[in-house]
């Protein structure tokens, strides 16, 4: 397929959710827009797929929850999209004094949550500390969240609106120190800490504070930090964005692998290949919905091995014939409805990090389990009654662990992930796993190398690199629209519009929105 024209106002490289968001905004503003996507479908990491032969269930194969997409963006683009809240925030099975127990956090929190804290920790102190902690987080989020769809505020401006103690505890002090000073219970500490480690490989005491930045992003969404399920799966998000873009007049070409971007200062040329021949189009602006490291290669700067990001997650997709029973006796429909934490006591998180940093696969692999079909049964299709999807997201599994022997190390990681889950089940989870049309267990695992191969995310890093604070430093240059919106690159006509832009991490569309606003402001 060839493009309809040779010259566009904007060429978007990459048809993931951020690229589609920027295309929709710009086409709605009357600009001519071309989106080029390497794969044979749009969506990037936010896609749904029937992963197992002969079975209708559609799983969110890579990205799995929507945490930061602003309501304003959904309304601006008239997205036909419904995001559902999960009735359980989290459940954490643990063994104390040889007895299976658990920590339940409802949504919204109520008496069962207070009682669960008291039964596990022996009193009300930890729950009181929990409520105070998250009230402080909410205060910070309430200041930052409204700025995400506006030009970058400065650090000074944000800091002036935040309680000094909250700023100290969450922005300037390693989050591990804050958690240790606020909580005493190892399990409670771990439940809090996990939001700092999703997609981020770091100690809770890392002096770079990358864990603090990750934590803030996970608690920012619409000022509440609630992670929601898109009804119909993650593909429903990008399908809605693609429809919005096309209806506004944007042109989308799939199976279009971009090989070069040449900036001329007042525009740029983009060369792409359709599998048969090369094509070149030009645009007044090029929006890069690829990682900054990949963009450097497309601009002709070469691949910098030292600057390549490194992902650190293990994703396992499972289809179950039935939900397993837990040793604690909690109803599985409650335990699996939110985030089920396994091997995520605080001490184990730090031990697992130390193992992985030393080049060893963690013995007790920490991870989180989600059952989206409890909230959105539509993704099951006409699967037999009792069928459920299960998603596991493992922490502290950097790409370097798999480099020498990816297949064998993946097998080991999956075994340890399953062992972490089985520790709390009455029966092994594999006894509940469905089988596909070929009689194979419905288990699909993705390590960072798989994510890089499938999605061209360097190092399999889901954020395209370490997250930045969602504000500008006080000394930052904010002279151009691109700088003001946090989407600038070294090439004047080329802007970042993906996860690698400032404020671009997670499934949010914020990177796409902000790049589009920078283009419109520069006209």
Mean pLDDT, to the nearest integer, reads: 96
Specify the helix fraction band: 25-40%
End-to-end C-alpha gap: 30 Å
Under the CATH scheme, which class of one domain? Alpha Beta
CATH architecture of one domain: 3-Layer(bba) Sandwich
Indicate the overall shape: globular
At the fold tier of CATH, the topology name of one domain is FAD/NAD(P)-binding domain
Topology:
Blueprint: E1 7-13, H1 17-28, E2 33-36, E3 48-49, E4 59-60, H2 71-76, E5 83-84, E6 88-96, E7 99-106, H3 111-121, H4 125-144, H5 155-159, H6 164-172, H7 175-182, H8 186-193, H9 210-218, E8 229-230, H10 234-247, E9 251-253, E10 257-263, E11 268-273, E12 278-288, H11 292-298, E13 314-320, H12 332-335, E14 339-342, H13 346-357, E15 367-370, E16 388-394, H14 399-402, H15 406-422, E17 443-446, H16 448-455, H17 481-485, E18 494-496, H18 510-521
Parallel strand pairs: 1-2, 1-12, 2-9, 6-14, 12-18
Antiparallel strand pairs: 3-4, 5-8, 6-7, 10-11, 11-12, 13-16, 13-17, 14-15, 15-16
Helix pairs in contact: 1-10, 1-18, 8-13
List keywords for this structure.
single chain, 523 residues, alpha/beta, FAD/NAD(P)-binding domain, seven-stranded mixed beta sheet, 18 strands, 33% helix
Structure description:
- This protein has 523 residues and is α/β, with parallel strands linked by helices.
- The chain has a domain at 7-44 and 232-308 and 471-521: FAD/NAD(P)-binding domain, CATH 3.50.50.60.
- Helix content is 33%, strand content 18%.
- It is built from 18 helices and 18 strands.
- The protein has helices at 17-28, 71-76, 111-121, 125-144, 155-159, 164-172, 175-182, 186-193, 210-218, 234-247, 292-298, 332-335, 346-357, 399-402, 406-422, 448-455, 481-485, 510-521; strands at 7-13, 33-36, 48-49, 59-60, 83-84, 88-96, 99-106, 229-230, 251-253, 257-263, 268-273, 278-288, 314-320, 339-342, 367-370, 388-394, 443-446, 494-496.
- Strands 1, 2, 9, 10, 11, 12 and 18 form a seven-stranded mixed β-sheet that branches.
- Strand 6 and strand 7 form a beta hairpin.
- The longest helix is centred in the first third of the chain and has 20 residues, at 125-144.
- The chain is globular.
- The two termini are 30 Å apart.
